[in-house]
Amino acid sequence: MTLTLLHNPRCSTSRAALEAVESTGVEVDVVRYLDTPLHEQAVLDLFEILEDAPGDLVRRDGTFKELGLTDDDVATKEQIAALLAEHPKLMQRPVLIAEKAAIIGRPKDRVPAFIEVSRDA
Fold this sequence. Notes:
Glutaredoxin, 5 helices
């Protein structure tokens, strides 16, 4: 089994997720999504297996506010996919992807359970 980690090395939670995966010996494909942003269809495909609500994938931080965005701007999967393709910095991190499931790795304690379930699947 190989997990994919959508990773931002500047984020302590993302670094912790990478360490958790590596400590289990599970193979991991690290994707630095800020360097290699997901395109709209890839985000839509992620929604098909994401255990979290699509809107949870959007960070509502200073950048969100600077862009003048509101919850109405991220009300549909299509809006979210277009926004994250254009502004990958707004994507919540880390995201762990297995073959048929994905999670946002927040809080950190979600990560070990996801690794274990994915390994057993």
